[in-house]
Amino acid sequence: MKLPSKKFGVFTAIAMVVGIVIGSGVFKSAGDVLSKAGGSLPTAIIAWLIGGAIVIFSTLAFSIVALKQANKSGIIDFVEGVVGEKAAYLVGWFINFVYFPILVGVLSWLAGSITNTLVGFERDLTWGFAALYFVGSYVLNIFGPVIAGRWQVSATGIKLIPLVLIAIVGLIVGLFNGNTIESFTVPATVASSAGTGLAAAVAVTAFAYDGWITALAITQELKDPKRNLSRALIGGALIVVFSYVLFFIGLSGVITNNEAISLAGSLDTSVLAASRLFGSFFGSVVSVLILISVLGTLNGLTLGSVRGMYQISIKGIGPAPELFTNLGKKDQPYASGLISFVFALLWSIIWYGNFKGYWGGFMDTSVLTIVFLYASFILVYFNIFKNFTELGFFKRYIVPIIATIGALYLIYGAFVSDPLMFVYFTLIVVVILITGVLTYNTSKAVVPVQTEV
Questions:
Q1: 114 lies in some domain
Q2: Measuring CA to CA, which of 146, 225, 353, 383 is 20 to 30 A from 37?
């Protein structure tokens, strides 16, 4: 197999890591983190720092795995090379039927929410806009993949602009008007004591830090990967952590702690900050840039989602591999895209039920799915210090152990945040994984890719 040429230096790789990780999550999570931190800004910042540390050690652990498998890329291949095919199949099953569909639905809702705020209609049309973005994203990625790819490239650079503007200008304004100092010294008075604490706040940061695993795809094309991969991952992660903390402090310069918590769970915190910092017109421009950031993230998730079952089935395993590897007239995995659409719709209904009070609580699937993905990584971490005997003490033991502790801490944080919703979500995931076990074909055969004529 011919491997890609070594074309990326360490600085290019760092930029790619930053571009992949920074997206819509930080704009949504600001109020959530503060709320779970009990309204304390210093506690919330510590949560951002701990969440960043978990990401750094997680990326280090996976960089060790990536360097051992230079001919592979992507989380499924990495898990398969370390833990085995069946475990990798179940991780892929989780990603395709839980992780991608949930995030596609949540991002559609976020885009709908900010659009509703921008248009300013008296009637709340958030879910109508969300439905348009949801369907449009799948139509674009299934039937217009070239356009979807170009849109993804364009959105990557744009999404950094509002983050930097709010972070820097908000920090300067907050220091002059005294709001930043007040936010640090006076906790919010509207924070709920239920499901709060440092661990719960750290779990929420996982949504904003999500995406780092995708950055490992650069391994094959990185110059001197043995030296530069860990540098790129750590350097990129540190820039992301610094940017997020600066953004969070920048928000505190124009948004009080009470306001941030009252707007938690949506993009309204960032939209309000943009309006106060730059005025009505330029604030709307910044809000449009935030919307583009959300839509860019949504497009990337949908792009991965529609190819999910195709990526599993091309190895000849899973249900009906001939069906899911059958490409249409435009070389697109239509069956894979369709089943992705169906599951994303089902998870979106669960997300919709949160706001209608159907479940007796708020099942924050946006955080829970990422926390559960970290839980699956523990298998990889365990095998590093068990089987990678050629490594030094730090890489073989310290890195995977701290990464494991970080994953367990995220799980604990998600549980204490809302134990009942955690149990509900776990039961749903268990049913989906059992289905995956039952559909795993141990007597697999390589399935040739079929293209309709």
A1: yes
A2: 353
Both tokens assigned to 321: 């591999």
Is-contact 266 287, C-beta < 8 A? no
State the Rg of the chain over Cα: 21
Q: Give pLDDT tens digits for 322-379.
A: 888 877 666 677 888 899 999 999 999 999 999 988 988 899 999 999 999 999 999 8
Please check whether residue 216 is in contact with residue 78, taking contact to mean a CB–CB distance below 8 angstroms: yes
Q: Residue 394 and residue 113: Cα distance in Å, rounded?
A: 45
pLDDT (tens digit per residue) in 269-307: 888 888 888 888 777 887 888 888 888 778 778 887 888
Look at residue 28 in the predicted model and tell me its pLDDT: 80
Strand partners, 450: 326
Residue 99 lies in a domain: yes
> How far from 377 is each of 242, 371, 449, CA to CA, in Å?
25, 10, 30
Strands 450-451, 326-327: parallel, antiparallel or unpaired by DSSP?
parallel
Calpha distance 210→193 (Å, rounded): 27
Residue 373: how many other CB atoms lie within 10 Å? 20
Q: Read off the pLDDT of residues 38-95 as tens digits, 9 standing for 90 and up.
A: 888 899 999 999 999 999 899 888 888 877 765 565 677 778 878 888 888 898 899 9
Lowest mean pLDDT across 172-176, 215-219, 390-394: 215-219
Around Cβ 59, how many Cβ atoms within 10 Å?
26
Q: How far apart are CA 244 and CA 293, in angstroms?
A: 15
Flag whether pLDDT at 126 surpasses 70. Answer: yes
Task: Report residue 215's pLDDT band, with 50, 70 and 90 as the boundaries.
Answer: low
5 part of a folded domain: no
Ramachandran class of 113: left when φ > 0, alpha when ψ lies in -120 to 50, beta otherwise:
alpha
Rounded CA gap, 314 and 322, in Å?
8
Helices in 307-364 by DSSP H: which ranges? 308-313, 321-324, 334-356
pTM of this structure? 0.85
Please compute the mean of the pLDDT values over residues 3-23 and round it to a whole number: 68
**What CATH number does residue 66 fall under?**
1.20.1740.10
- Angle of helix 85-94 relative to helix 419-439, nearest 10 degrees? 130
Calculate the alpha carbon distances from 168 to 40, 41, 165, 245, 253 in Å: 21, 18, 6, 11, 10
Residue 446 belongs to domain spanning = 10-451
What distance lies between CA 199 and its chain's CA centroid?
19
In a domain, 4, yes or no: no
